[in-house]
Amino acid sequence: MLGLDLLKAKARAGLLHLIISALAVGVLAWLTLTVWYPDGLATLQGVWKILGLVAVVDVILGPALTVLVYKPRKRTLVFDLSVIALIQIAALTYGAWTISAQRPAYLAYMYDRFFVVTARDILDEPPATVQAIEAWRGGPRPVFVRLSFAASQEAAANAATAFDTPAMALLSNAYAPLPEHLDQFTQTSTAEAAGSPVLVIPVIGRQAQGTAEVDRQSGQLLHIGAN
User: Fold this and answer.
1) Which pairing describes strands 198-204 and 209-215: parallel, antiparallel, or unpaired?
2) Three-class DSSP labels, 34-96
3) For the whole model, what pTM was predicted?
4) How far apart are CA 62 and CA 64, in angstroms?
């Protein structure tokens, strides 16, 4: 009977720990997938690997260790549980910091595609006019990269192979709101379905490529999907 009581106590402790851990990871996942990386940006930027690591440590490993070490009236129980909690907090903090630091700040349209740009990638101080551009779904700001004539010529020559983010796309002083350059945008957008009011534009992320849907008349970003 004593063994059964111990198993029940372990199960209750593990379940409580699982619920608390799942709630913490759930909040991070919600914030990541709905605010920082809306639509398919989590896949394009490779965020799922970090979320997976946090989930393994906090939702699986933590409660499992609690079940293993838990024993009522155990002299070192508080210490054991404190160590487990510290490991979980460290994993959650690392994951949240990494995901937050790498979140997309801009979707920079250059050549005939979007490049995902983070705040850490920017090579200059964004001017007030750029910071005032409305963020898409609370995440990145869609912008048009204004090119000089020489840069335009280079862009035309290198567009077919431009899958690494070019330096011009990291200069926020060259940014402008997408709708203000709608004519140039629609002229250089090559992935347009015939007769469709929606433009389908390639998106180059840190880990993968996808497509963005943009309203042809307003220049408003509608959706981002991973390939």
Assistant:
1) antiparallel
2) HHHCCCCHHHHCCHHHHHHHHHHHHHHHHHHHHHHHCCCCCCCHHHHHHHHHHHHHHHHHHHH
3) 0.78
4) 5
Hey, what amino acid is at 27?
Answer: V
Which residue ranges make up each domain of the chain?
2-101, 104-226
What is the chain's alpha carbon radius of gyration, rounded to the nearest angstrom? 24
Side chain identity, residue 133: I
108 token code pair: 């920079």
Residue type, 182: L
Residues 122, 11: Cα–Cα separation, whole Å? 50
* Number of helical H runs and strand E runs in the chain: 8, 7
Q: By the 8 A CB rule, do 103 and 139 touch?
A: yes
- Digitized pLDDT (tens) for each residue of the chain, 227 residues in all: 447 777 888 888 889 989 999 999 999 999 999 989 998 899 999 899 999 999 998 888 888 888 888 888 888 888 988 999 999 999 999 999 999 888 999 999 987 889 999 988 888 888 888 888 889 988 899 999 887 644 554 555 555 444 567 777 888 888 988 888 877 766 655 544 556 788 888 899 888 899 998 888 888 888 898 87
Q: What is the DSSP letter of 111?
A: T
